[in-house]
Amino acid sequence: MAQRTYRFDVVVIGSGIAGLTMAVGLAREGRNVALVTKKQLEDSSTNWAQGGIAGVLDTSDTEAIEKHIQDTLNSGAGLCDEDVVRSVVMEAADRIQGLVNEGVSFDRSKDGTFDLVREGGHQENRILHVKDKTGAAIEGTLIKRLHDEDVSILERWMAIDLILEDRNDPSKGVKGVWCLNPMGEVHSISSSTVILATGGAGKLWRNTTNPSVATGDGVAMAHRASARIRDMEFVQFHPTALAIPGDRPFLITEALRGAGGVLMTSEEHKDYRNKGGEPENYSYMKNVDSRGSLATRDIVARATDRVLKLTGKSHVLLVTEHLDSDILKNKFPTISQRLSSNGITLGVDPIPVTPAAHYMVGGIEVDDFGRCKNLDGTTFKGLFAVGEVACTGLHGANRLASNSLLEAVVMTHRALEYALTITSKDDIKNEGDIPPWRAKGLDNLVEHAPLKADLETLQSIMSDDVGLLRRNERLQRAQRKIEHIAKEIDLIWRRCIPTRKLVELRNMSIVASLVVEAAISRKENVGLHFNLDQ
Ligand code: SIN
């Protein structure tokens, strides 16, 4: 296999809101950009995001801004970086306007103002949305903008590892990335600036609302390159993923609870049907939190998990029969369609739901410009992380609903501005030698079955032992098992020509061990981390 080196000013890895925004912005300023994405452009978590983007649009409304700040801090359970929270919330209006300028048509009310909705943990209606497909609207718009620019789009290319200036001294920074191309060949992309926008790691759990590309690649690559990773114990489970046996979990947006949907067990639902009255009064959530079904996600998901364990059931019910079915169908067309293909009518039938892994709150530690940090806290030369893969300090121990798209637009804008200062369109610096991928003596991977088995085992460990409710013994057990799997994968890795599945599994085993290690180290229950033995 002849290895080639491709040279770019910047390589962006990932094609969700963060990766697309970066690639478009850099290319507009004349940078020579490669965008690497391991399936197709639209295979990203952004594309699947339903709810919306939180933000106060009237910058003179200090009270409303302060409430958004307080809701974010409250949800983050004392672990947010308050300066980051304040600055991100205050920049929301400008960046949301930026999305509008790109062509995103957020829904408006009859009077022409934006139709703002509410989700869990928000005191006020402040979420802009496009029906129940906000992410798809943003993704589609940014993909159009991408095609307007001269960007080398490398679909079905998979980043394997960062190429460092000096493997023994990561502080010298990056000089590119090794990638697997669609033919299974490894090539080098030489670039003094690398943007990691690879999203989360939901695929580590059996039930996830994430697309299958969410395998923690950016965190694993950055970790291998000695960047600093933090807060990995905070894994957000969305309380309401559609639970249909044999079907993948499908997100039922929290905005449906914002519109009045109420969680109940089947028994509570029977009582409600018999006796009627206020649906909230029947919900198991009413004894858990005064906000009921609209409490923050950590609280709702944990309470739901408890109920499922106590009742031995596979799902609870999201009840909407007290709401107007036609209005709901109009507001939530994607959900309505998905439900009806399963014989469920929105606003008529109860919806079976269960918690599912949804969002990685931790990630690669970055500064205010998206620059990755080294282990010693200095910035990692040339390496940026934006979107879900980055840990900015905004979310603390638990992300507030619809703050992730906000974080992505604000932080990506800052990273973009910074990246423009360190890259120059007139100055092709990437002429140095790029080390070849270690190709000598590697065999073709002939047995794929062990990889499949390892993936399933990893997902079982994470789902059973590193889920919403944790225990010391289970975490220790998970750690031992993951260590064993990681060693097995490493043996295959050293011997075989990489395949996409092997690269992903190697990354997943590393991210799994980071989550477990962080969960073991966290000695108090806070936000999304809950250990029954603490
Ligand atoms: C949702 O629509 O419930 C998800 C929004 C989010 O994850 O913030």
Report on the architecture of this protein:
This protein has 534 residues and is an alpha/beta fold. The N and C termini lie far apart (54 Å). It has a six-stranded mixed β-sheet, covered by helices on one side. The chain has a five-stranded antiparallel β-sheet with strand order 13-12-16-15-14. The protein has a four-stranded mixed β-sheet with strand order 1-9-8-7. The model has no long low-confidence stretch (mean pLDDT 95). The protein is built from 15 helices and 20 strands. The radius of gyration is 23 Å and the shape is globular. The longest helix has 24 residues. The chain binds succinic acid. The site of succinic acid (SIN) has 11 residues, from loops.
Give the CA-based shape: globular
Number of helices: 15
Biggest sheet, strands in spatial order? 6-3-2-10-19-18
Q: Approximately how much beta-strand content do the residues carry?
A: 15-25%
Q: Averaged pLDDT, please?
A: 95
Instruction: Compute the CA-based radius of gyration.
Output: 23 Å
Bound ligand species: succinic acid
Poorly predicted ranges: none
Helix content percent band:
25-40%
Give me a quick take on this structure.
This protein is an alpha/beta fold and 534 residues long. The chain has helices spanning 17-28, 45-48, 62-75, 82-102, 134-148, 217-224, 255-258, 266-275, 297-311, 325-331, 333-340, 403-422, 449-465, 472-495, 500-521, and strands spanning 5-7, 10-13, 33-37, 53-54, 127-128, 151-155, 158-164, 174-180, 186-190, 193-196, 229-230, 235-242, 250-251, 262-264, 316-319, 351-360, 363-365, 371-373, 379-385, 390-391.
